[in-house]
Description:
Elements: E1 4-11, E2 15-20, H1 25-31, E3 34-35, E4 50-54, E5 57-59, H2 68-72, E6 75-76, E7 81-83, E8 87-90, E9 95-96
Amino acid sequence: MADAAAWLTIQPLGARVPVPAGQSLLEAALAAGIELPRSCRNGTCRACRCQMVSGSVRYRIEWPGLSPDEHEAGEVLPCVALPQGDVTLNQPLARRAST
């Protein structure tokens, strides 16, 4: 997709989806038919928490629901994470949406 600001790769599923500017990692995955764990979509419930294997993000909110140790360990909340380039997540619970 030519208008992708970044690409999101979700392992171990092996899905690669475009992330348009201003879209969170979760929003991009859902738009591409990839189901990720989620609930609140505002960075507080932590249901979407997973490991960022590579890349970097900034958050829509000042302090998402991650502890400093989790943040330092590379954990991310895709619901409020905006990619700063290509990102790879490890989310074993990801699956392709049923049609």
